Amino acid sequence: MSEFKNVTIVKKANVYFDGKVTSRTVLFADGTKKTLGIMMPGEYAFDTAAAEVMEMLGGSMEVLLPGTDTWQIFSEGQSFEVPANSKFSLKVREVADYCCSYLK
Q1: Number of domains the chain contains
Q2: Which domain does 55 fall in, by range?
Q3: Which residues lie below 8 Å from residue 21, measured CB to CB, with a gap of 6+?
Q4: pLDDT by residue (tens digit) across 55-84?
Q5: Is 46 domain-assigned?
């Protein structure tokens, strides 16, 4: 889906890693939540509370998923899932545009 309809957008940005990663929260009527964001080149590690699906909208990134020791490359049109209560690492070599869906 290329657009969302009938949603609420939280105006204040989520800003991480000295502004190199930013996102905006999108809330849906059914209670689900997504974030739309941009990552500048760099290396990042994130902790998750909820399970998430990260969809690449532009650019690419190398991802080290929990329980693995192999980096995988994901680029525009691809996605990956991260389990709840885990940590994953990213190497971003070019600007990456993403949509993160939080799973219940």
Answers
A1: 1
A2: 7-102
A3: 15, 37, 38, 39, 40, 42, 44
A4: 999 999 999 999 999 999 999 999 999 999
A5: yes
